[in-house]
Amino acid sequence: MTGVAVDYDGLIPNNVALGQDERVKRALEKWHPGYINWWNDMGPDGFQESLVYLRTAVSVDPKGWAKFDYVRMPDYRWGVLLAPAQEGRKIPFGRHKGEPAWQEVPGEYRAMLRRLVVIQGDTEPASVEQQRYLGKTAPSLYDLRNLFQVNVEEGRHLWAMVYLLQKYFGTDGRDEAEALLQRRSGDPDTPRMLGAFNEKTPDWLSFFMFTFFTDRDGKMQLEALAQSGFDPLSRTCRFMLTEEAHHMFVGETGVTRVIQATCEAMKKAGIEDPNNIAEVRKLGVIDLPTIQKKANLHFSLTLDLFGNEISTNAANAFHAGIKGRYREDRLKDDHLLEGTTYPVLRLVDGKIQNVDAPALSALNMRLRDDYFVDCNVGVGRWNKMIAEHGIAFMIKLPNVAFHRRIGEFATIKTDVDGNMIDDAEWTKRRSEFLPSDSDKDFIESLMQPHFEPATFASWIAPPKVGIDNKPGEFEYVKIS
Ligand code: BYC
């Protein structure tokens, strides 16, 4: 195995020498029909016969790893691709730091590793299920194509995790791989594992917010798993991150284009007050306060994905060398964290306060802090767009205690600034913070398909450049 050349001859494209690994090859080939059935049942509704201008990974060489072409989604070449092995790689953190990275699952950490791989795997099909109906209301062919690109790549990320399960976890791995195709987002009996993946993605603003906020959790978690001492997991996540960058791009530029359309329409109509919601809505664009509420919703739902602020699971995974910190390899400390502390926002004596906690137990909090910083960079770009139009409004991330279901703040209610409020006030003010039914109805009323090349819905601006540098009138999806 060179680690770079991809074998495209068999059913499953791969750079893991599947051809010489009969057992795993057979297991994956057996899993394949179930996956295709799942894709047909739960993947994008309609459009399966349409030709979509998709990128497919053809190499893992960072300089030229993808090719673009028209593909019918069910014919997409979902494959198993790992980033090239780094010769002599050592476990970078925890009690085994400095030992050679594991090429096989260490027996004592088997259950922990399997759980992390299964959770990661579960989120991938979940997001496809959540986005199943969006194609029908796409604001343009460009956006439709981006949705499908994200969907097929989430499907590939499922393949990535299923490969690890089938190759390294024996019978349990096979059972887990099957179960990944059985759970369903939002199903009361067999839901997906993490809360945010059972929520609905009912409209395109939600889709862009999801790809901005929730895919960014994906990026943070993958970066942490890419540090793993279990080398196959590290290499798998490193390559997934290459694809993930586009998902983040879709979210950030998607929301920016929604904001741009709003600002341009307001300027044209001479509306200066961003809170003049009724007049702004008459222009067929989404008012900035409603965009803020959607951000509040998706940010708070995504924070829950970081788990509890104080977590023994996280401490154990780090200590074992299984899951590191965000970009562990760029951090300058002992990479052991024993005896050090980290400030954690906690609920103490009924107040939200910073408390020093053992750094090992606070790793979820630390990753969440890194996430907050990363989100704010993107939000800064949204605000730049608003400022360029001279409109007095800033999108702000809500306080981390706002609208939480997991962790320290799950038992309290706060406003978006983190001031505690009682249930009665929460009920009264909820629609000030989160999209109300009438906000949802308004957004839904805008969700009409625009399937002619070079046309865009009123509520979203065209992109600055096309995918693969294609011109504006390019037919990204040939609908049939
Ligand atoms: N919902 O000790 P704690 C992505 C459970 S997104 C439900 O704090 P830990 C993507 C927890 O499982 C990234 N349950 O947990 C994005 C535990 O239960 P058990 C996905 C929750 O382990 C967009 C118990 O509460 N990858 O890739 O420190 C599109 C105690 O919690 C939740 C990963 O998440 C929740 N939100 O932290 C497509 C990486 N939170 O086991 C894809 C792998 C916690 O005691 N996962 N619980 O019964 C992990 O690293 C960790 O499992 C978590 C939780 C960060 C999720």
Q: Could you tell me how far the N terminus lies from the C terminus, measured between alpha carbons in angstroms?
A: 40 Å
Number of strands: 7
Which small-molecule ligands are present, each listed once? Answer: benzoyl coenzyme A
Helical content stands at: 40-55%
Low-confidence stretches: none
Count up the helices: 12
Radius of gyration: 23 Å
Describe the structure.
By secondary structure, this protein is mainly α. The protein is 46% helix and 8% strand. It has twelve helices and seven strands. It has helices at 22-42, 110-130, 141-168, 170-182, 204-226, 231-269, 277-282, 288-303, 312-319, 363-388, 423-433, 437-446, and strands at residues 51-57, 66-72, 341-348, 351-358, 413-414, 420-421, 477-478. The strands form three sheets. Strands 2-1-7 form a three-stranded antiparallel sheet. Strands 3-4 form a two-stranded antiparallel ribbon. Strand 5 and strand 6 (420-421) form a beta hairpin. The radius of gyration is 23 Å and the shape is globular. The protein starts with 21 loop residues before the first helix and ends with a strand.
